[in-house]
Write a structure and sequence with these properties.
Its EC number is 4.2.1.106. Keywords: Lyase. GO terms for molecular function: bile-acid 7alpha-dehydratase activity. InterPro entries: NTF2-like_dom_sf, SnoaL-like. It is a single chain. A hairpin with a 2-residue loop joins strand 5 and strand 6. It contains three helices and six strands. It has one domain: Nuclear Transport Factor 2, Chain: A, CATH 3.10.450.50. The protein has a six-stranded mixed sheet. The model has no long low-confidence stretch (mean pLDDT 96).
């Protein structure tokens, strides 16, 4: 089926949604993240290792892991493939690259994965209703090498 100009505009809105999602996670902006997600969200991150059955449970789970000044992360979504299924439904695949540093736990992670999302349009705006990813690879370094120095940290305001 041919992609229409209307589809292109909808796809761009979905791309902007996913970009906001990644930025909200990395900045620990839980209110902004909530705006990206359906209340009835389901997740299966890391092949189901982190599964949640509501927006509130998902955000609570992320807060428990990430919401401290000693946990730094970067999530980047690349190469989106988004398919408009109907006027208010779409799905997408994203290539994820993530990097995490847990200064308290003394480990670093670098990985890649493929995100699979489902989107719905409610009240005129796209939101994520299903999300999850499967790892392509993941590396963990522990302990953090002594030569690694964190020289900037958004969350450490000393």
């Amino acid at each position: 089926m041919a992609i229409t100009l209307d589809d292109i505009l909808e796809i761009e809105q979905i791309k902007q949604l996913k970009y906001r999602y990644f930025r909200a996670v990395d900045c620990h902006d839980w209110a902004a993240l909530e705006e990206c997600l359906a209340e009835d969200l389901t997740t299966a991150l890391d092949s189901g290792k982190y599964s949640f059955n509501s927006r509130a449970a998902f955000i609570g789970g992320l807060k428990a892991i990430l919401d401290r000044p000693t946990f730094l992360c970067k999530h980047q979504g690349h190469h989106p493939q988004i398919e408009i299924l109907g006027p208010d439904t779409a799905r997408g695949t994203w290539y994820l690259e993530d990097h995490a540093i847990d200064l308290e736990g003394d480990w670093m992670l670098h990985g890649t994965a493929l995100y699979q999302d489902e989107y719905v349009k409610r009240d005129g705006r796209w939101i994520i209703v299903v999300t999850g990813y499967r790892r392509i690879f993941e590396t963990v370094t522990s302990p953090i090498p002594a030569q690694l120095k964190v020289t900037a940290n958004l969350f450490d305001q000393r």
